[in-house]
Amino acid sequence: MTVVLFGESTGGLFERGVGQYPTVGDEVHFVTATDLSIIYGRSHSATGLTVGTVSSASGIPATLDLNRFVSRHCAIVGSTGAGKSNLVSVILEAIGSSKFPSARVLVIDPHGEYAKVSPGRSKVFRVTPGTGEHALVVPYWALPFEELLAITFGAMSPANEATVRDMVQDMKRAAAKQLANPPPAEAITADTPIPFSIRQLWFDLDDYERRTFKTEANQRVLTEVEQKGDPQKLISNVYPIHGPGGKEPFKNPSPRGISRQLELARSRLADVRYAFLFDPQGGYAPDLSGRTGSDIDGLVASWVGHDRPLTILDVSELPSDVATDVVGLLLRIVYDTLFWAGTLPVSGRTQPLLIVVDEAHRFLPEGGDSSCQRILTRVAKEGRKYGVGLTVVTQRPSEIDATIISQCGTMIALRTTNPSDRSRVAAAFPDDLGGLVDLLPSLRTGEGLFVGEAMFVPSRVRVWLTQAPEGGADPGVTTSWAAAIRPDPKHYEQALSNWRNQLKG
Ligand SMILES: Nc1ncnc2c1ncn2[C@@H]1O[C@H](COP(=O)(O)OP(=O)(O)OP(=O)(O)O)[C@@H](O)[C@H]1O
Ligand SMILES: [Mg+2]
Q1: How many domains does the chain have?
Q2: How many other β-carbons are positioned within 10 Å of the β-carbon of residue 84?
Q3: With contact defined as beta carbons under 8 Å apart, do 181 and 174 qualify?
Q4: Torsion of the alpha carbons at 493, 497, 498 and 501, rounded to the nearest 10
Q5: Whose C-alpha lies nearest to ligand 1, atom 31?
């Protein structure tokens, strides 16, 4: 038999840690129901989130301390199908309950699983909103310059990149004068989130490449535009075509050689799949002078300043090549706003915010360096001081940035079979509980080890089943395959059309 000294109970009160060690010859007792309720029964029912029952004593509720759960961050890990999303739903239901009417929770939902959780207590944002949902828009002009450039134009030579950066900075400085509270021009760089027209930028870059010249009184001058273009409609200026073999009109002698990038940008800006970014509804799309009807404050207020406790940002429809950058931008907009809010009533210190990121390995790969990763690392490191908590959910703890896991005060490990994932979980467990890790492969679905700040006593917990209609439920293979009539193949046509239009059926 192995004994792990774990805590002691005096006068009906259980404490972690041992003050008095047993000696050889001491009595050993079986655990009784009363002992269990003394050990696990210290619940925080007033301030806590009850998510299930303690496995070894099913009558005892398992309750997370909400204060610590939010402010000390939490990692939820487990193999696929172990019950992570169900646990998140149960946590959201508990927070969405009437106990916390002013709660603020922001969920990054990469599979569209949480829209049905706590109906009436959540606001759902999606690129193509259904009834009762809201449009997810993220204005491109809030992106840091490098990401905007990569998404819109693709790679450029360093010299061209520098030119474009200067142009964006000038456009932002000019447009900033139209803001309600313009910052001083020196404070504005190409990275400052200030509206400017990317269509005008495209048009100016495009125009430069197309120019032709003629000679007039021994001077080289620009030829007149033959057909005027339209930046808003992405139509180029047309110049008289350059002559053959050094004859007038001449080509632009120093083009930037970015026609390929300009073509990519034109198709990106016109692509309906990117309209949430480049043509954001709700007054966030700037006119050619960079004037917008709404600003970032309106966006943050619509996300986390509404009257419901839960905000679900369904990012499942974002084009995959920009999903990480867009999620990074979203989080940066929210975090920076709350950060700079200082002590205002909407700051994180006054009204804390919990950010939940499901499928976190997509946004936080080990060794990655995206802006999404930078902002999440920042939240993990300093969020506690500014009232922003983080819950990361992943099936691959070994592939996720180790810093993030080490910053999580609470670890909830559901069934984990992969050895490298298990060793990452073991590293996050306190030394005296390392042995618990051996249980991980044999846990039942929906059963997990809850360890750390938010759980007074480390516990093996059976999580309840969410009340939401099954979102990530396993497809019922036998029932569907046993059906006598096969589905009509004509539906493939609709599926293809959905695919082409990027709309889920
Ligand atoms: N506590 C539970 N009790 C009973 N069944 C559960 C419980 N938790 C999850 N399940 C069932 O297990 C299945 C998978 O759960 P879930 O979607 O939460 O897995 P997951 O860990 O999020 O998987 P993935 O990593 O693939 O997203 C669901 O069909 C769900 O009904
Ligand atoms: Mg899941």
Answers
A1: 2
A2: 25
A3: no
A4: 180
A5: 473
Report d(CA 74, CA 128) in Å as an integer: 31
Q: Check pocket membership of 473 for ligand 1, CB cut-off 6 A.
A: yes
Together in a domain, 75 and 204: no
CB 328 within 8 A of CB 374: yes
Which residue owns the Cα nearest ligand 1 atom 9?
83
pTM: 0.88
Question: What is the reported pLDDT for 14?
Answer: 83
Q: Which atom of ligand 1 is nearest to the CA of 470?
A: 31
Mean pLDDT of successive 10-residue segments in the chain (505 residues)? Answer: 80 82 89 82 73 84 92 95 95 90 94 91 93 94 94 94 97 93 92 95 95 86 90 93 81 88 95 93 93 92 94 93 92 92 89 96 89 93 94 94 92 94 88 81 94 88 86 69 87 84 65
Residue 22 lies in a domain: no
386-52-391 Cα angle (round to 5): 25
Q: Whose CA is nearest to atom 14 of ligand 1?
A: 81
Do 141 and 329 meet the contact criterion of CB atoms below 8 Å apart?
A: no
Q: At what angle do helices 259-270 and 145-152 cross, to 10 degrees?
A: 90
Nearest alpha carbon, ligand 1 atom 17: 472
* 337/380 same-domain check: yes
Any idea which residue has 């655990």 for tokens? 31
Buried b / exposed e over 447-482, threshold 16 CB at 10 Å, is bbbbbbbbbbbbbbbbbbebebeebbeeeeeeeeee
With respect to residue 18, please indicate whether it lies within any of the assigned structural domains.
no
Which numbered atom of ligand 1 lies nearest the CA of 111? 27
Beta-bridge partner residues of 391? 74, 356
Ligand 2 centroid distance, CA of 87 (Å): 9
Angle at which helices 198-210 and 158-176 cross, to 10°: 130
CA distance 398 to 416: 11
Is the sign of the CA dihedral 103, 109, 112, 114 positive or negative?
negative
Q: Does the CB atom of residue 416 touch ligand 1 within 6 A?
A: no
Residues 365 and 394 in one domain: yes
Q: Report whether residue 446 contacts ligand 1, using a CB cutoff of 6 Å.
A: yes
Which tokens sit at 440? Answer: 């991980």
Residue ID of nearest Cα to ligand 1 atom 11: 83
